[in-house]
Amino acid sequence: MSIGIGSILQILGSLAFFIFGMKMMSEGIQRAAGSQLRSILRTMTKNRYLGVFTGFLVTALVQSSSASTVMTVSFVNAGLLSLVESAGVMMGANIGTTVTGWLISILGFKIKLSAYSIPLFAVGLPMLFSNKTRFKYWGEFIIGFAILFLGLSYLKGAVPDLKNNTDALNWLQSFTEWGFFSRVFFVLVGALVTIIVQSSSAAMAVTLTMCAQGWLPFDVAAAMILGENIGTTITAELASIVGNTNAKRSARIHSMFNIIGVTWMVILMPVILPFLASFVENVFGIGNPYTSPEDMPIGLSAFHTFFNLINVLLLLGFVPWLVKGAIWSVKPTAEDDEEVGLKFISTTTLTPELATIELQKETAHFGQVTARMTDYLRKLMQPALSSKKQNKMLKKLRKYEEITDQLEVDITEYITKLAKEEVTPLTSAKLRSVINICNDLERIGDVFYQTSKIYERKIESDLSFNKDQLEGLNGMLDLIDKSFEVLVNNLSKPRYESVTLDKAMQIEGEINTKRDELRDYDLNNIGKSGYNVQSSRLFNNLFSLLEKIGDHVMNINEAIVGEI
Questions:
Q1: Is 414 part of any domain?
Q2: 222/292 same-domain check
Q3: CA–CA distance, 155 with 159 (Å, rounded to integer)
């Protein structure tokens, strides 16, 4: 038997088919039930035990531990989940991903599901053309499911049968004679395969197929599956690169959890595997996985589930230590952002009258966070700024726009809960005022983001502003800074009744005057030699947006004193 370029391409093509089907199926169900999945993650992670169940449920639904772990890292990055809560979700995701192994073992190897794949296309394709969006997404899921098992069917046919090839078997056997080091070697092989294909499910499909074709002994395949548990952590680590420190720590918890589990299992494999093989043989009524290649996939799926269940049970009580280890291994940087989630509102339910105190503090914090965007925009507009630093400032502004969105949602949800109780007319007016304030703060975040997109177009078009234009924009930013100083001071006052509008109105007038000056300057220079029309348009958009920020700041001051 010889394996040529054609055979290798067949294997790679079949694997690509499988991965594409897995991706399409996972994305289809995430789109169909995306908001519900996000809601599950946010509401069902109150403690690490519930987090484990949540991680299992979400991963079993989307059939992708990578999707659920990346989602978890992004939630930690946004301040929606704590490190302890994310640890439970990551552990549950490890159990949830074992469902994929069972589906492949039972449906892919025991049932000729490829024969049903074509009819599934007939069901899913009309759904893709549906006018109902969710119906369309379920169609993607069905077609992805069909493609996945077609890919698995092709993979089984592409991988040569080695059961009767003694030379190849002897060559593979030579790697299994090093005892403990053999197990470590195949763990590394499994991790490498997973990192290359970027999918533990695809790596497992390859492993199970090789077992069914007689390529790998049972213990070797088990070691590779352990390695795949380590390899899958790379996805969360990559997703955390662009996140904050806590996002990186969340990914590190996932990595530590899997590495610790694989370590103790590699040591105990000679004891556990024979016991598990006997257990599967008696319970499922199949052949011994050690001697029956066609039954190895079932044995390996059982081993995968057993390992992840026991690992969760053993390490769940050590979550605080894993968190400490992650904090120790991922040091905070000088560029770490402040707490971006709710800072003063607690999860305990207070009376609406008492809660308004926390709400006012939270609103002042919201104003301080939003005010930082002025500094990032000012840095972005520096003419000598390198492209790397420009990209960094653009990302900062995008991130803070997302932060303002989330803060508004969280504060509004809290107020909605308070409004369900009986409140006094004065408290009701305060709650309405806070809603209006948060609405304008979120709009300010949106406007800052619009200015960053305009400046990004300027960079991409290789346009520049002259000295007068830059001075004018920086002058507007100086006035915006002053308006924010007054705003944050007003928001920080214990009693809104003591706030006056004199200073705010004065600065608002200065902003409008500055806007008019810049508009007159622009109109007077259009058509003159050396005055770029494209730069003029962007300049006009920028100072108009900055004036709009001043309007929203004034709206907030008016909401504080109850004039709207």
A1: yes
A2: yes
A3: 6
